Amino acid sequence: MTEAMVSGRTAEKGEKWEGPVSVIVKPLVNKLIIPSKTVLNAVAEGESTCSDFYPVYCTSDDYTYDSCASKAAKALNATVGLITCDKGSGDCPAFFQVSERTSEIAKRGRI
Q1: How many other C-beta atoms are found inside a 10 Å radius of the C-beta of residue 54?
Q2: For 31-73, what is each residue's pLDDT tens digit?
Q3: What are the residue ranges of helices labelled H in the chain?
Q4: Which SS3 state, helix, strand or coil, does residue 11 take?
Q5: Angle at the Cα of 56 (from 66 to 24), degrees rounded to 5?
Q6: pTM, whole model, 2 decimals?
Q7: Do 44 and 66 touch, CB atoms closer than 8 A?
Q8: Domain ranges of the chain
Q9: If we measure between CA atoms, which residue out of 79, 61, 60 comes closest to residue 70?
Q10: Are 111 and 105 contacting, i.e. CB atoms less than 8 angstroms apart?
Q11: How far is Cα 50 from Cα 60, in angstroms, rounded to an integer?
């Protein structure tokens, strides 16, 4: 199948090739889970522990990349754990969970 897809195609120098399975599977998997490479690397290298990234908070009850994982959200004390949101689409995957609704935290004056 791959041979038929690439027949007559030549790769340019430095071009990144993505296989057909990745093209089909990645968008489906991203609807379920997107691992935060920053968090994984920091914990694996011993620079941080999981407790540095939990509990998970967003800046609003609208759980999107902009309210949970963007630099602007982090500046307002938003945090993400091992599962993050999609920067491209702005969506958070199905397994993304916040520790507590932002509106409930605000009522207690924590944000």
Answers
A1: 14
A2: 999 998 888 998 899 998 888 888 888 888 888 999 888 888 8
A3: 2-6, 20-30, 37-44, 65-68, 71-75, 102-107
A4: coil
A5: 60
A6: 0.68
A7: no
A8: 35-111
A9: 79
A10: yes
A11: 23
